[in-house]
Specification:
By secondary structure, the protein is an alpha/beta fold. It is built from ten helices and ten strands. The strands form two sheets. An eight-stranded parallel sheet has the order 1-2-3-4-5-6-7-10, sandwiched between helices. Strand 6, helix 6 and strand 7 form a beta-alpha-beta unit. It is globular and about 60 Å long. It binds (1E,3Z)-4-hydroxybuta-1,3-diene-1,2,4-tricarboxylic acid. The site of (1E,3Z)-4-hydroxybuta-1,3-diene-1,2,4-tricarboxylic acid has 10 residues, from loops.
Length: 308
């Protein structure tokens, strides 16, 4: 089957630079996707966008280029609840990839077991309205109770403005809960303002909540260009995201994860150079200890506990 990608969608960055920041040995890219290829793994009929193909081979080449050892492949909405492309990536990773699936209430126990066998360790509940149709909360809660028995966790994706409405549901989830991209704060608002304070409170009051401090390229308004100020100071790429991510890393060093988000679905303005994204890490995790927790210890504890 052949697919036309959504008009205006940018292709992922070809030939990323080699990062200057050398990640610690054993680092995990804990948020990335595979798309198709569509001819082999068709995109879901209910999808809200059609991506360009991004295969497991290309993902693992990027992993090696950036100096990472492992990946967590997260089911993207363009594949709906058909996890075959993600599972195919896991089973061809030589044990170096684990996955997060999207499942429906109708999934059988045997199918859940097969996903576990392939390396899946979580399910993703997506509340970003431009990406998915609404799923009733009782259905999600039922799924959460079932996957809890497998020792899996729930990954949640939402916009910061929706946190108050989703709070009760999130705080009743019985598993570890991992938030994508810090709950997408509006970084034009003050880091000390009420919106981000609510997210910090969510993490502070609920020790089962973790956060990915990923996707500065999605959140930033200042963008990828470094700025040379009149004072001769150089402020780096995505500088407006730094105070937000750094604050989460420093307050919750044992509950943060980082990922490239390759191949960066749904970007229209600019496509990040993945090498540059890696160079962003020391700005938000400023010591070797914080970097090791973020990139090695935490993802290993969550996804490869038997080796951690
Ligand atoms: C991300 C972000 C996005 C998309 C998806 O599954 C997806 O389609 O996650 C987005 O558009 O913000 O984490 O990849």
């Amino acid at each position: 089957m052949s697919f036309e990608k959504t008009p205006g969608w940018l292709d992922w960055y070809q030939g990323p630079t080699r990062p200057r920041f050398q990640v610690p040995v054993g680092s995990v890219d804990a948020h990335c996707h595979v798309f198709g290829p569509g001819a082999e793994f068709p995109y879901a009929p209910e999808r809200k966008y059609t991506p360009c193909d991004a295969s497991k081979t290309q993902l693992y080449a990027l992993r090696d280029h950036l100096g990472f050892a492992r990946n967590v492949v997260v089911q993207a909405t363009c594949h709906g609840a058909d996890n075959r492309a993600m599972v195919d990536a896991l089973v061809h990773s030589g044990g170096k990839a684990r996955g997060v699936a999207t499942v429906k209430r109708s999934i059988s126990d045997a199918e859940l077991q097969a996903l576990h066998q392939a390396g899946v360790r979580g399910v993703r509940f997506n509340f970003v309205k431009r990406l998915v149709d609404f799923t009733p909360k009782d259905e999600l809660m039922e799924i959460a109770a079932r996957i809890q028995k497998l020792g899996w966790h729930v990954v949640i994706y939402f916009e910061a403005v929706d946190l108050p409405e989703l709070w009760d549901f999130f705080t009743q989830l019985p598993t570890t809960v991992v938030v994508d991209h810090m709950g997408r704060p509006d970084v034009s608002l003050p880091v000390d303002g009420p919106q981000f304070a609510l997210f910090e409170r969510f993490m502070r009051e609920h020790s089962n909540v973790w956060s990915k401090v990923s996707c500065p390229e999605r959140l930033s308004l200042t963008g990828p260009k470094a700025l040379n100020s009149e004072m001769g100071l150089v402020h780096g790429a995505y500088r407006d995201v730094v105070p937000f991510a750094r604050r989460i890393v420093e307050q919750f060093p044992d509950r943060v994860l980082w990922g490239t988000d390759w191949p960066h679905p749904n970007l229209r303005d600019h496509m990040p150079d993945d090498g540059l994204l890696v160079d962003f890490i020391p700005h938000i995790a400023t010591t070797a200890e914080l970097q090791r927790k973020l990139l090695v210890d935490n993802p290993m504890r969550l996804y490869w506990p038997e080796e951690a």
